[in-house]
Amino acid sequence: MGLSRRTILAALGASAVAGSAGCGEEAGDPNAEKINFGYIGDWNGTSLLAVAQKQGLWAKHGLDASIKVFTNGPLQVQALQTGDLDYGYIGPGAFWLPASGQAKIIAINTIGAADRVIAQPGITSVAGLRGRKVGVPEGTSGDMILTLALQKAGLTNADVERVPLDASTLVSAFASKQIDAAGFWYPAIATIKKTIPDLVELAKNDDFTDTVAFPNAFVAGNAVPAARTAKVVAVLREANDYRATHRDAAIAATAELLKLKVEDVTADAANSRTLTTAELDAATKDGTIAKWLTGMGDYFVGAGKLPQQADPASYYLGDVYTGAA
């Protein structure tokens, strides 16, 4: 992916898009195992880590976690490969990275519904994007929703002028009308709406539920010891159970970590479907998650991200997830 170690290290301290920023470190037993964990500054990417930190779950499981914010999943996978991170969080658009052997999925998080293809006022259809400048953070769920929307409209990425942009740059580029449209996501779109309230939403995740799911997940570096990952998964499971039964408290913890208003995080949380740990266990054991991953693999092969379909068992550590019960 061509990113230098210097770029990755700079990203470790980068602010999340739309003014969301935060990092934390839970001080615990000096003998606790230290880990570096990446995240994205929104509800999906932050809530379980916020709960784990607030509820003291890292220390409970013998871990000392330093968490660092990133603007996207691909940067975190790069950091996993260089050893700057042990664990991270990715959206569905980056699932091709573990599928191609660059990381391992250790836990499915939520099913996202925050992605949109948005356009400047006056553009009323995806077909109307032909020949126009469309911004997209490459290798993200924004990339994925754009490609799917174009396919549904009988177009390809070659029919538009794709403009690769990182998330924060895309916000300003759209707001200043330097681009005509974008494959992007909430809550960042809400920031754009403050400048362009009449922007048009041309496509959303729910338009494609018959063919592909949009799960997001936590990932580990390939070299991370299995015993350490088992501890991390135990934390994520416990945090997930807490989030499912204490949603308001989880939202408050996330808002505190990200230094956002509770109402903003509440609105963001509405754009995803939370699964209980029991549901994730069942979906792992009955093959549902494998079907999700296979469907996404088909998409990534068709989009040119993967040379061929990969067996989900080669990159989703389902046995580790259910074994941490």
Task: Give a description of the structure.
The protein has 325 residues and is of the alpha/beta class. The chain has 14 helices and 12 strands. A 5-stranded mixed sheet has the order 8-7-9-6-10. A 4-stranded antiparallel sheet has the order 4-11-5-12, sandwiched between helices. The chain has a 3-stranded mixed sheet with strand order 1-3-2. The model is unreliable at 1-27 (pLDDT under 50).
Short description:
The chain is of the alpha/beta class.
Explain the layout of strands and helices:
Layout: H1 5-12, E1 24-25, E2 33-40, H2 43-54, H3 57-60, E3 63-70, H4 73-82, E4 87-90, H5 96-99, E5 104-112, E6 115-119, E7 133-136, H6 141-152, E8 161-164, H7 167-175, E9 181-185, H8 188-195, E10 200-204, E11 215-220, H9 226-245, H10 247-258, H11 262-269, E12 272-274, H12 277-285, H13 288-302, H14 318-323
Parallel strand pairs: 2-3, 7-8, 7-9
Antiparallel strand pairs: 1-3, 4-11, 5-11, 5-12, 6-9, 6-10
Terminus-to-terminus distance: 36 Å
Q: Structural class of the helices, strands and pairings? A: alpha/beta
Main-sheet strand order equals: 8-7-9-6-10
Number of DSSP helical runs: 14
Strand content: 15-25%
The count of DSSP E runs of length 2 or more, i.e. the number of strands, is: 12
Question: What is the alpha-carbon Rg in Å?
Answer: 19 Å
- How does the overall form come out from the CA principal axes? globular
Report mean pLDDT, rounded to a whole number. 91
Query: Which stretches are poorly predicted, pLDDT < 50 over at least 5 residues?
Result: 1-27
H-E order: HEEHHEHEHEEEHEHEHEEHHHEHHH
Largest sheet: 5 strands, mixed
> What is the helix fraction of residues, given as a range?
40-55%
